[in-house]
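User: Can you recover a sequence for this backbone? Please restate the input before giving your answer.

Assistant: Of course. Working from this structure:
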């Protein structure tokens, strides 16, 4: 079986590398900077997204947003190449757009599976993502063995849309928790505490997790390299807020988070890790763990 992968950003590259361990892989990306890693892993590079589909049985997409997906869907030959193929979208998009993608695939004679993932760069590198699958149950059963190299669990959530709705709910927890952690660290910094000691207290407490330990270390060390970026969190917060409106439920915390991540975007922090929202929460960029301001590189924006 030949597998295609379109979109080699912060998440797409490690996901594709995991697939390359088990399958023949063909890839495409907007910029060429990520190709050497994939070629070294044995992947073939396509000239166009349509070529990926033509040479694959199953094609995964991990692109930033709906316009990015629409740009490849509308390219010459892409939809025609979907006949008899399965398109699996792992990107975070709206439910309406996911249903649109499913319709486009079906009209072309192909099939569609929705599979947003929970996890960031490190879990992606370790094959420890959680996939939230949605679509025809028989097609999902066919896809599950293929996603094993990327996931620690692949859970069937229901028809198209339910995978994304599940991710919205999961990300509500992770985003608000991240902002809470950033605010906690900001208060510690403002009070003049020993930040290393404060980090040790958090890491020893009942709320500690591999995720919190990673983010605490990044703040203490001033390491803003992206595991999941500010721009990704802002995009996710907007989608969650829209989902809350559609479901007629209040989302007070996510509304605040969306505002904070929006401010971080305006400050030029788009490519930095999501925990860099600490720079905004504190109201200013203080010395120490809030001290490094860097614009996102081309690779981080990709």
């Amino acid at each position: 079986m030949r597998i295609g992968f379109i979109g080699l950003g912060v998440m797409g590259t490690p996901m594709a590398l995991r697939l390359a361990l088990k399958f023949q892989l063909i890839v495409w990306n907007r910029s060429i900077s990520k190709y050497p890693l994939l070629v070294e892993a044995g992947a073939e590079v396509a000239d166009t997204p349509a070529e990926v589909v033509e040479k694959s049985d199953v094609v995964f997409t991990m692109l930033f947003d709906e316009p990015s997906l629409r740009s490849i869907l509308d390219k010459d030959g892409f939809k025609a190449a979907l006949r008899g193929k399965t398109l699996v979208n792992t990107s975070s998009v709206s439910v309406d757009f996911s249903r649109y993608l499913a319709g486009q695939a079906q009209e072309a004679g192909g099939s569609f599976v929705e599979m947003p993932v929970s996890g960031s760069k490190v879990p992606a590198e370790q094959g420890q993502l959680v996939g939230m699958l949605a679509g025809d149950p028989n097609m999902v059963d066919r896809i599950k063995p293929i996603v094993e190299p990327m996931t620690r669990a692949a859970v069937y959530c229901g028809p198209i849309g339910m995978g994304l709705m599940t991710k919205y709910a999961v990300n509500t927890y992770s985003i608000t928790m991240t902002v809470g952690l950033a605010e906690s660290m900001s208060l510690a910094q403002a009070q003049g505490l020993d930040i290393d000691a404060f980090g040790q207290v958090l890491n020893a407490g009942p709320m500690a997790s591999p995720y919190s330990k990673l983010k605490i270390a990044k703040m203490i060390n001033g390491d803003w390299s992206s595991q999941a970026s500010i721009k990704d969190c802002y995009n996710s917060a907007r989608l969650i807020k829209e989902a809350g409106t559609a479901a007629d439920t209040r989302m007070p915390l996510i509304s605040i988070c969306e505002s904070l991540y929006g401010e971080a975007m305006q400050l030029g922090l788009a490519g930095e890790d999501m925990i860099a929202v600490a720079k905004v929460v504190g109201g200013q960029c203080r010395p120490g763990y809030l001290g490094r301001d860097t614009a996102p590189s081309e690779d981080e924006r990709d």
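That completes the design. The CA atoms of residues 68 and 212 lie 31 Å apart.
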